[in-house]
Amino acid sequence: MPLNDFCELRGHFDHINSMKRIAENVKNSAYEIIEKKGATYYGIAMSVRRILEAIVRDEKSILPVSSLQHDNYGISDITISMPAVVGRSGVEGTVPISLSDDEIAALKASADTLRKVAEEVL
Asked: Sign of torsion, CA 89 42 20 115?
């Protein structure tokens, strides 16, 4: 289901402004955490807690987690964060999402950047 359709089912219609607001909030979340807690590791800890909760409770929740890609949007053999079903076995499946050609190109560029960094480290 396209994201905009899902949002409309939940009563959210101002897609462009909402996406801009969400992107800005995510971009600035580290500063907010530092301001309130003094360090960003609290934000990381909350994310880890949420993922572990999904595993322990076998929730089958959809979470944006890093997993090895197997020809997902033409990307293979690199670990990137994508929506996935998380349950007792960890990542139990990927969630297909509709992406525009520009979004797929940007995703591939991100994967290529990660691959280059990994090659430099190894």
From this structure: negative
